[in-house]
Amino acid sequence: MPWxxxxxxxxxxxxxxxxxxxxxxxxxxxxFIAVSHLVHRYREEEKALARHLYGDGQxxxxxGKPDNAxxxxxxxxxYDPADFSYQLSLARALxxxxxxxxxxxxxxxxxxxxxxxxxxNLALGRLAVREGDTAEAIHYYHNATxxxxxxxxxxxxxxxRFELIDFLLRQNALPQAQAELITLAASLPRNPxxxxxxxxxxxxxxxxxxALSEYQTILQHDKENVEAEEGAGECAFELHRYATAEKYxxxxxxxxxxxxxxxxxxxxxxxxxxxxxxxxxxxxxxxDRRIQEAFKAAxxxxxxxxxxxxxxxxxxxxxxxxxTGTVDVNSLRQSWNALNAKPSRRSAxxxxxxxxxxxxxxxxxxxxxxxxxxxTDIDQALLLIGEDxxxxxx
Amino acid sequence: xxxxxxxxxxxVAELSAVEIPSRSGVRNSLNATFREDRFFLMLAVFxxxxxxxAVVCFRLAIDWTRIALLGPVPQAHSLRVxxxxxxxxxxxxxxxxxxxxxxxxxxxxxxKSALYxxxxxxxxxxxxxxxxTAALAIGAGHSLGPEDPSLQxxxxxxxxxxxxxxxxxxxxxxxxxxxxxxxxxxxxNAPISAxxxxxxxxxxxxxxxxxxxxxxxAISSVVVVRWFLGSQPLFRIPAITLARPWELIAYALLxxxxxxxxxxxxxxxAYFRPRLRALPRWTQYFQPAVAGLIIGLIGYLGAPQVMGAxxxxxxxxxxxxxxxxxLAGLAGLKILATTLSFTTGTPGGMFAPTLFIGAMLGxxxxxxxxxxxxxHLTGSTGTYALVGMGVLFAGFLRxxxxxxxxxxxxxxxxxxIVPVIIAxxxxxxxxxxxxxxxxxxxxxxxxxxxxxxxxxxREENILRIEDAMQLPAGPVLDSRETVQGxxxxxxxxxxxxFLVRLSPTGWKFLTKDVLKKAVGExxxxxxxxxxxxxxxLPILHPDLPLDVALRYVNQAPIVxxxxxxxxxxxxxxxxSEGVLSKYRQ
Lengths: 394, 585
Description:
The complex is a heterodimer. Among the domains of chain A are: 205-275, Serine Threonine Protein Phosphatase 5, Tetratricopeptide repeat (Alpha Horseshoe), CATH 1.25.40; 284-342 and 350-393, no CATH class. By secondary structure, chain A is mostly helical. In chain A, α2 (17-62) runs antiparallel to α3 (66-79) and α16 runs antiparallel to α17. Chain A is built from 18 helices and no strands. Chain B is mainly alpha-helical. Chain B has 4 domains: 2-31, no CATH class; 33-229, Clc chloride channel (Orthogonal Bundle); 246-454, Clc chloride channel; 465-584, CBS-domain. Helices cover 65% and strands 4% of the residues of chain B. Chain A binds chain B through residues 15, 17-18, 20-21, 24, 27-28, 31-32, 35-36, 38-39, 42, 46, 49, 53, 71-72, 74-75, 78-79, 81-82, 99, 101-102, 104-106, 108-109, and chain B through 30, 33-34, 39, 42-43, 46, 49-50, 53, 56-57, 60, 63-64, 67, 72-73, 165-166, 228-230, 232, 236-239, 312, 316, 319-321, 380, 382.
């Protein structure tokens, strides 16, 4: 049927709307395939270029040129705008060069697309730290702690929590820092290095009980750990557990040279152990001897600090205008002389009363003179004994 | 055998009669499906798809050219940056003059010309030429953008497709703006702005007949672009806050500065373009190269940001990457570079440079304002840069509605709308005051074309029927009253024609002669309605354009103008004399 193939008929068929739509649909599909292929190839080239530029940026960053690195990261992102690591690197570089608003903008955009990503949360947390925003820092660091890490999640989570704790300590947000530390300590693996870090932070925030416990845990498994011994000794000293402090510090001193502060603490701890008349297990004569020694030390202190000026009319020391010289040395000396001259009685009650008065005077002398007169080890020991007795009284 | 054939064919015959439509039925059904209006909508979708494909390829071509010619990161003090724009421009000039003479300029006016002068005809060759030359020019660093060429490529594709379909002239004419919207939407990844721009600047009126097609084409093209290039907004801006309402004054100030900058930019183009075109023909081979050399020099000396479209630098400006002095410098240099590129006839668009200038200027003004009143302003540099984009768009391109939606769409940030509206309005008002002729109208007039000015059309004082209607000269008669009664009421009056209100609805007119004749024939007791043989009068409403009345005033001496709420309530009458006298005024 040759009439079917005439040009006129073909044209007429091709002009029919259903045929036109079919042809256009086919053309659109073909165009889609062709453009997909083209875009795919172009994207591959762009990605290769972006990787190259990103590598250059990292090299600049490693050589301490973050500004140059930013230019390369930006260029890399121009060619591969969706790449997460490029965006994160750019945001970090921006943050590290102080371009906080832009860094935040990038990071928030990343966060919106991947709120569970721990690296983004950590970067935002660090940004919040730079801005001093405690609430936001806690929020993002927690997200980073519980978020998704691509590799070694335990270490990253721990490091993130350590960062948060250090920030909270700097901000003096002690209750929050303590809560974080307790959580961290509970999840720590057996690793003395990490345990020491935790214990140090407990000590830093003033929670010596937890810190001592951490150090003791370390020492249970590693008896030779000098750092733990030092830490435990220091914490025990702060907790006024002088025998324990002496034990750990002596052990540390045997193994290693102590720093001056710890050395002094060791000396004072020993002095307290030797001088404290309130220890219940010493004999009566030993107690008397210690009281007499303390009383004598107080007298010597009065002699040593006897040149202290009396309080002026306005309550300010003339010798040391910076201090509040409220020390009435003469009155203390009179009291000391009176007690010293007082004969010992046979009566136990009167003798106990005198002992009480002597020690009260000793503590008063040490307290009154501590601001304006240099403290010796024995003075410090007596002050600490006095504090313990006050505490016991309380 | 025959029995068996009967037994087999009978059910089939029954089936065909009941369930399968006949061939003529199928044809009718197809014809109904592919009615011209519906077919036009389908065609709009295909235009959108093909425009989207074309724009994706166009953008890849620009990027590829830029990497190949200027390197992945154009840097100052690089000889490549200095030489490439000039060298490529020499080749471009030859190609434009000898191969694709219609591709000069942005493409917006060419599309308007197709709509108003050439019955929707845009040669397909123009699309190819625009694609190649604009990609080369922008990729080589000319300070031009890809949006207007995309618009023209879309329009040319649509025109070519329409011609292949042998559509009616009316439909063919409408296809160009449909393609233009698709191309622009794909280029900006912003369908609403594209539709508004085409309506504001190309078509000039809201027409329900074409709006559906324009929207469909724009959305189709954006779907394609987002499929291939991603759906994220063009710019990522920091969070926006506006703590105090009086901060809007700062944005109004930005609008003022932007309005002045728009005028400088427009006047620069208006001044240089005719003068450069008036130079001897041989100079046209070198004009783009000279422009390229100057732009290359700007890049070489330290501002490669002005080269090309510059979107990545706009993004940086929004993220506080430049000091305000640098931003102000870049805005000034971009005005110079774009003026040079555009007035020398290099193919490429003005949208991207306008946005660039706006972003830099906005950032600079924001920087200065924050320097002096930083404690009182909550907007970031990014906020001001973004608002600045809209400001220049409103002031320079004079498309106020598009400028607002464009800012919202390219940023995806809708909280900025109030500052944008305020700043854009100020810029628009200042620009209109100092530069009465909008840039696109100016360019078309320089080209010797008298295309309709959309701004003038928008602001034209339209005459309405209420402006020409009058009170009826005599009483309004009722069709139920008697002939005698009507005769007595009208006999003494000077008027010759009266309106008769029909029952229950409708109007007719009655002349004294007809009434007199009815009285003479003794029809005194008959109702007026029974002697009226003329057809009912058309009814008009006061708010209709006066042009509408012209179609009806010749059908009767007077035409009733009635309330839209009550067709029986007469607001006035209109006559041919009244209409003409109003037009004569």
